[in-house]
Amino acid sequence: MSETIQLNGRQIETDQLELCSLADGRRQLSCDFKVTSDAYHDIAVLLYEMNFRVGLPAEGLEFDAAISNYFTDTTNLYKGNEVADYHLELTELAST
After folding, report:
1. Burial class of residue 8, CB neighbours in 10 A (0-12, 13-18, 19+)
2. For 10-57, what is each residue's pLDDT tens digit?
3. Of 35, 49, 53, 83, which is the most buried if we count CB atoms within 10 A?
4. Which fold does the domain 4-92 belong to in CATH?
5. What InterPro entries does this protein map onto (predicted)?
């Protein structure tokens, strides 16, 4: 299912989103989204942060998570009018 997520306050429209619970009770989010050449720099800088306050506004959920996996089909979007597919997996951080 597609949905809007927030990563450190930045909204991202997903093409696909799955939220599941791990055996230890933490949540894991998996999503796919498109990144345009116009948004490439901002998304790259955001993902370099590695740790996020994740918001799922439609479900009223927020939690802290870190990237556990991500990949893209294109690593250089500096040419105009390009679009890349991104896959991102976030795992909720353990409570301290």
Report:
1. exposed
2. 999 999 999 999 999 999 999 999 999 999 999 999 999 999 999 999
3. 35
4. Elongation Factor Tu (Ef-tu); domain 3 (2.40.30)
5. DUF3219, YkvR-like_sf
